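A.,

Following up on our hallway conversation. Structure tokens first:
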């Protein structure tokens, strides 16, 4: 039942902080690790895909992002969760790039690197750009109401809207079972 789960970072896995650049401010959202453990128990691969326009805007460096991502990995490891990959786009919204969500560049790269096609991929995030990434990639999308998710629901059409990562994981489990029955 393997699937690829593309996860937004800020507001989905960790508390939303405006232009996070200090690893000491990385704080897991309640239930995030448990949701990821549930997904891992289903045989899913986990990849973070995150827009980090603070780099392009000159607010912080790629090294700052790497330190925050390392802190996230450390906090998750303490809960028994290992990420399979982490990607981020350093570009600002006015730069034409293929990696900034909702463009599918990071999603395509994750599919290639982790060996799973878009149709076996789910995108989980708290913003319309995450849902749109899922659409553009040909994946299914889940909008979590953590972070900006509650206020974003009216602006997008996810395949599923959930209160948190654990509820998203439960929905994905049902989808994977249904997919297996179709074969």
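Then the amino acids I'd put at each of the 183 positions:
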């Amino acid at each position: 039942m393997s699937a690829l789960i593309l996860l937004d970072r800020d507001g989905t896995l960790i508390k939303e902080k405006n232009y996070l650049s200090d690893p000491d401010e990385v704080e897991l959202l309640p239930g995030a690790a448990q949701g990821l453990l549930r997904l891992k128990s289903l045989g899913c691969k986990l990849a973070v895909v995150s827009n980090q326009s603070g780099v392009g805007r000159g607010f912080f460096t790629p090294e700052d992002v790497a330190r925050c991502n390392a802190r996230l990995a450390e906090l998750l490891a303490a809960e028994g969760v290992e990420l399979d990959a982490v990607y981020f786009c350093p570009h600002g919204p006015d730069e034409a790039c293929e990696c900034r969500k909702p463009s599918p560049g990071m999603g395509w790269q994750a599919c290639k690197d982790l060996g799973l096609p878009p149709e076996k991929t789910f995108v989980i995030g708290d913003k319309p750009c995450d849902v749109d990434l899922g659409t553009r990639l040909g994946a299914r999308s889940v909008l979590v109401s953590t972070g900006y998710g509650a206020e974003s629901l009216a602006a997008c059409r996810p395949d599923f809207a959930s209160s948190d990562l654990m509820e998203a994981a439960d929905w994905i489990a049902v989808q994977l079972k249904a997919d297996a029955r179709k074969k």
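The chain has a mean pLDDT of 96. Curious whether your intuition agrees with the design.

B.
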